[in-house]
Amino acid sequence: MSPSCRTPQIVTTVCGALLLAWTGACGGPASAPAKSVAPVNPPMTAAATAPPEPVPFGGGPCPYLDLAKVETTNGQRVSSVRISADRPHPACFFYRGDGREQLRTWIVVATPAVAGATVDAVAPVATSDRAELPGGWSGGAQPTSDGAVIAVARQGTAIVVTTNQQQTIGARRIAEQVIAALSL
What total of structural domains would you count in the chain? Predict the structure, then answer.
């Protein structure tokens, strides 16, 4: 028999064997107990990405962070406060006398993957200092060109605090205040 004549027989044999195996696994009369088999190629899932950074939308006050606490913790007088349109918790922008931003809080409520992506976007865990806060919050903290940032996540929530101060301690204290104020 020539090789071209054998090809249809091989295909028929292979298809028949697969059909027999499939019908047997679906509860045919002589089926063995079904075994759990992991798929060869698991379904592809899209990588989580951080949402875009917040932008000021309207005037303050910040619904979860007191202006006096920001002034004390960040060490600068606050001249104005603006908030974003984000929900359930708006981002809060605190400005100093010359109109420049001195502190920003940003809360992302999403999936654990998006919360983790948010942390990695602003303070990558692989390259920043490890940040741990009470209650199981973890992420990164690092100086930036304009100051410092801390970003921590727990389950599906991320908290990001940026400051114009070079030390991360003030940002850490603000993050703790946000967590306490929102009972997160």
Answer: 1
